[in-house]
Design a protein that fits this description.
six-stranded mixed sheet; 27% helix; Purple Acid Phosphatase, chain A, domain 2; 5'-nucleotidase,  domain 2; alpha/beta
Length: 506
């Protein structure tokens, strides 16, 4: 299989010569994926069946050589796949069980359906899931997750911990009972415990941005390897002492770290020597595993039957690419916001670009189906209505454009509102010329605003919405996707277009 790989990176590192071994050497093969929520391949790459194929090949290879293979996952599995909008990630756990992961870390998207749903998914998982820095109701640990794990292979012990980004409360729906301790602080505690229990090698599964991984390694010398996720990067970093491996997203790439473990006699007694080599497999040339392909086909068929219903024809071209929905006014974003406002009768509506996830395009004249709409809105968000002062509405818009240069998901798509912003100005002072119903915003006036339940709770930094007085809460609200479907059907197609409601001045 590896002879056909598109991307291979080999690093040969610091061979130890002339030192007597005090234990039998071990070959450890780590196979790593992260941020995978898609059933099947796209453009020939990724998906469950290709991940399974590589895992099976590498496990057979390692075992044939008398070694050990660990299949690891760097978080974000339960959401936002399309089918998860119906079964809240149950099918992803089923597929992960069939693939046979050896360890996973909780990502922020594991909390998208709330902690109670996550607890149920963890009961269904047949693989260990780590959440070292997570607490529940003030007590360390999350129900169904492990704080650490020790794997024994021959004469060697491998310690595992899992670290989840502390930004999870603003990125997902973890709720008030779930806490996230600082990563390095937790890592120091867990690593000390693992080393005390005899861990020869310590691996941290992390769901955090690359800069956070670097900072954790800087502060915690006892971590040997970080297997990461969250920021969808494909990278390998090794400085001779510590390593980081990230494998992109969706199984488009699979990261492999082959490690030669050896315990030798050092100046102060036995010491571990580990020599890694790395490869990154582009899965476009990988044959899918037949068994997993069958399971994926069954899930896809079920979904297709349920979602084949036609909704309406779009009169305009629609672009839902990540870059488009997170940087500027967008026709599909306008459609969503228009549907929310029409369904609620609110003065204005706001939704965040990060909730639009299809990352695709639709030509004018295309007939949209329920599947298309739910592909774009997979999180199952509901439309909350609230009374909000004009000053807080302006603050919300400032937040929405505060990280536009970073492509942040908080970018606002609006209806009943128009405004301008200048990305060259400091965050917090970028917005100008705000109007509601074509009338200048009155900072002291109270408006009725429709927003999705995620940002209503302060998600994506929208703390201003927490100052609103809720009229219809999430428990009584309708699904945004249903409102969009109804709106398109009522209007006999998609007519929302870019019309100048959000103007960039930079």
């Amino acid at each position: 299989m590896r002879a056909t790989l598109h991307t291979i990176l080999w690093l040969t590192l610091f061979a130890v010569c002339g030192t007597p071994a005090v234990a039998e050497p071990l070959r450890l093969s780590i196979v790593h994926v992260n941020d995978w929520d898609r059933l099947d391949a796209r453009d020939g790459a990724g998906g469950a069946a290709k991940i399974a194929s590589i895992a099976r090949y590498e496990r057979d290879r390692a075992e044939a050589d008398g070694g050990l293979m660990l299949l690891t996952f760097g978080g974000d599995m339960l959401s936002p796949s399309l089918l998860s909008g119906f079964d809240k990630g149950a099918h992803m756990v089923d597929l992960a069980n069939a693939i046979g992961f050896d360890a996973a870390v909780l990502g922020n998207h594991e909390f998208d359906f709330g902690p109670e749903v996550l607890m149920q998914r963890l009961k269904e998982a047949k693989y260990p899931v780590l959440g070292s820095n997570i607490s529940y109701k003030g007590k360390p640990g999350f129900p169904g997750a492990e704080r650490s794990r020790m794997v024994t292979a021959g004469e060697y012990k491998i310690g595992l911990l899992g670290l989840t980004t502390t930004d999870t409360p603003s990125l997902s729906s973890s709720g008030p009972d779930v806490g996230f301790a600082p990563l390095a602080e937790t890592a120091k505690e867990i690593v000390a415990e693992l080393r005390k229990d005899g861990a020869d090698l310590v691996i941290a599964l992390t769901h955090a941005v690359y800069q956070s991984d670097l900072e954790t390694l800087r502060q915690v010398a006892g971590i040997d390897i970080v297997l990461g996720g969250h920021d969808h990067l494909v990278l390998v970093l090794y400085d001779g002492k510590q390593a980081i491996l990230k494998a992109g997203s969706q199984g488009n790439f699979v990261g492999i770290m082959d490690i030669a473990l050896d315990r030798v006699e050092g100046r102060n007694g036995p010491e571990l020597v580990w020599q890694p080599s790395f490869s990154l497999i582009n899965t476009i040339d990988v044959e899918p595993d037949p068994g997993l392909a069958g399971k994926v086909a069954a899930y896809s068929s079920k979904l297709d039957r349920e979602l084949a219903t036609e909704v309406g024809v779009t009169e305009v071209a629609l672009d839902t690419s990540r870059a488009s929905v997170r940087s500027a006014e967008n026709a599909f974003g306008n459609l969503i916001a228009d549907a929310m406002r029409a369904a609620t009768g609110a003065d204005a509506a706001i939704t965040n670009g990060g909730g639009i996830r299809g990352d695709t395009g639709y030509q004018a004249g295309r007939t949209l189906t329920r599947k298309d709409v739910l592909t774009e809105l997979p999180f199952g968000n509901r439309t909350v209505t609230m009374r909000l002062k004009g000053s807080d509405l302006r603050a919300a818009l400032e937040n929405g454009v505060s990280q536009v240069e970073k492509g942040a998901g908080r970018f606002p798509h609006v209806s009943g509102i128009s405004f301008a912003f200048d990305g060259r100005k400091p965050a917090g002072s970028r917005v100008s010329d705000v109007k509601v119903a074509e009338t200048p915003l009155d900072l002291g006036k109270v408006y009725v605003i429709a927003v999705n339940d995620f940002i209503a709770r302060g998600g994506d930094g929208y703390d201003a919405f927490k100052k609103g007085v809720v009229i219809v809460d999430a428990s009584s609200a309708r699904l945004m996707a249903s409102q969009v479907i109804d709106y398109v059907q009522k209007n006999k197609g998609v007519k929302s277009r870019v019309d100048g409601r959000v103007r960039r001045l930079d």
